[in-house]
């Protein structure tokens, strides 16, 4: 008996992935909005006041998910850039380009909210702490990736050059994660760990995890939307892309 199987490899072509990305975009966008509303409600109204930091601690419901996503998105960007470099996959390189601005935004958001949290906690907007400094380096890596890609006119050469930078820079991700363990830093250790019980109240933890999922859905939705634009820009001379333009 024969069974129908989905040929996932066909979606490796930009032409095939374009409508799939369009179909997934509303679902991830809707999930992001819903989870964001629930996460903010849990974080701002349900979670109790922290005994030491008071109301100021609530910045963690944005700061921590943004920090997580800054590392996750860079890892994903480097992965797809590497796939594009090794297998000469056009769609993989396009996806890496689509992820870069979102990752840079998450990194900037993590640094900015960290400064807002650091002022009442440490008494300073910025300190040259190992965690903060390595996170700032991550922002420079995102900017460097985008700047290098934009500086090269030929898309394929730009993909290869930027991919090398992304793969070299990925070493900074574990440095960010383990910096509080490797060095004596002002930044507090991880509040959530897979190896030990959480050190925060359940409503706080739940709110932070829901916000992390909201950020995850947001990053996927924005990357898909940007990827569709990149596909149309690079495939503008293809017959199928011209057909879309005429239909619009």
Radius of gyration: 20 Å
Tell me the helix content.
over 70%
The count of domains is 1
Q: Count every helix, treating DSSP H or I runs of 4 or more residues as helices.
A: 8
Largest sheet: none
Number of beta-strand segments: 0
The chain-level mean pLDDT equals: 88
Distance from first to last alpha carbon: 43 Å
Globally, the shape reads: globular
Strand content: under 5%
Low-pLDDT segments: none
Specify the structural class: mainly alpha
Strand-and-helix sequence, N→C? HHHHHHHH
What does this 3D model show about the protein?
The structure is a single chain. It contains eight helices and no strands. The protein is mostly helical. The protein has one domain (23-46, 57-189, 199-247).
Layout of secondary structure:
Elements: H1 14-46, H2 60-87, H3 90-122, H4 130-151, H5 155-169, H6 172-182, H7 202-234, H8 239-247
Quick overview of this protein structure:
By secondary structure, this protein is mainly alpha-helical. The protein has helices at 14-46, 60-87, 90-122, 130-151, 155-169, 172-182, 202-234, 239-247.
Keywords:
248 residues, mainly alpha, 74% helix, globular
């Amino acid at each position: 008996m024969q069974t129908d199987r989905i040929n996932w490899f066909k979606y490796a072509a930009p032409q095939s992935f374009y409508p799939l990305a369009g179909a997934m975009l509303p679902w991830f966008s809707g999930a992001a909005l819903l989870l964001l509303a629930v996460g903010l409600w849990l974080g701002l109204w349900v979670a109790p006041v922290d005994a030491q930091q008071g109301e100021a601690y609530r910045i963690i419901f944005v700061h921590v998910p943004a920090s997580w996503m800054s590392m996750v998105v860079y890892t994903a960007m480097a992965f797809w850039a590497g796939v594009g470099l090794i297998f000469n996959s056009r769609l993989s390189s396009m996806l890496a380009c689509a992820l870069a601005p979102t990752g840079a935004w998450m990194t900037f958001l993590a640094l900015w909210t960290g400064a807002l949290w650091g002022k009442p906690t440490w008494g300073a907007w910025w300190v040259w702490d190992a965690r903060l400094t390595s996170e700032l380096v991550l922002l420079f890596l995102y900017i460097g990736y985008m700047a290098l890609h934009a500086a090269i006119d030929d898309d394929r050469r730009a993909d290869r050059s930027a991919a090398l930078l992304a793969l070299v820079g990925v070493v900074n991700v574990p440095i960010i994660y383990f910096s509080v363990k490797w060095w004596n830093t002002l930044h507090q250790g991880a509040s959530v760990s897979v190896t030990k019980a959480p050190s925060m109240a359940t409503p706080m933890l739940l709110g932070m995890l829901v916000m992390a999922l909201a950020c995850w859905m947001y990053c996927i939705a924005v990357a898909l939307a940007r990827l569709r634009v990149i596909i149309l820009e690079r495939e503008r001379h293809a017959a199928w892309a011209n057909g879309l333009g005429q239909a619009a």
